Amino acid sequence: MQVTLQKAFIKINKEQCKGCTLCIETCPVNVLKVSDKFNSRGYHYAEYIGDGCTGCGVCFYACPEPGAITVYKRGAVIDEEILASFN
Predict the structure, then answer these.
(1) pLDDT single digits (tens) 2-47
(2) β partners of residue 12
(3) How does DSSP assign 47-75, residue by residue?
(4) What gap in Å lies between CA 15 and CA 12, rounded to an integer?
(5) Consecutive H or E run containing 83
(6) If we measure between CA atoms, which residue out of 36, 45, 37, 38 comes closest to residue 65?
(7) Domain of 51, in residue numbers
(8) What confidence tens digit (pLDDT) does each residue in 60-83 have?
(9) Where in the numbering of this chain does the 4Fe-4S ferredoxin-type domain appear (predicted)?
(10) Nearest residue to 69 via CA among 9, 26, 12, 8
């Protein structure tokens, strides 16, 4: 089943993140942070704090790792499973 997003959010693939913090530094609304946890490669990965994303995509363009960040904009139609995995 598909749902229409009422607010924007991002998903970060923690295994692809190398902890460079470029996404955190460039986020205009400061909704990203460095995790206290490590990924399987030993990096402190970036995390979305869970609210406040505008869907601007600046983090996506700043990230040097293709596919590490996915931006979901308000009004987008996505599969319910994607939304459930975020919550």
Answers:
(1) 999 999 999 999 999 999 999 999 999 999 999 999 999 999 999 9
(2) 69
(3) EE-SS------HHHHH-SSTTSEEEE-TT
(4) 9
(5) helix 80-86
(6) 45
(7) 2-86
(8) 999 999 989 999 999 999 988 877
(9) 8-37, 44-74
(10) 12
4 close to 17: Cβ distance less than 8 angstroms: no
How far, in Å, CA of 5 to CA of 63, rounded?
24
Q: To 10 degrees, the CA torsion angle through 20, 17, 38, 49?
A: 90
Strand partners, 38: 44
Q: Structure pTM?
A: 0.87
Number of domains the chain is built from: 1
CATH of the domain at 60: 3.30.70.20
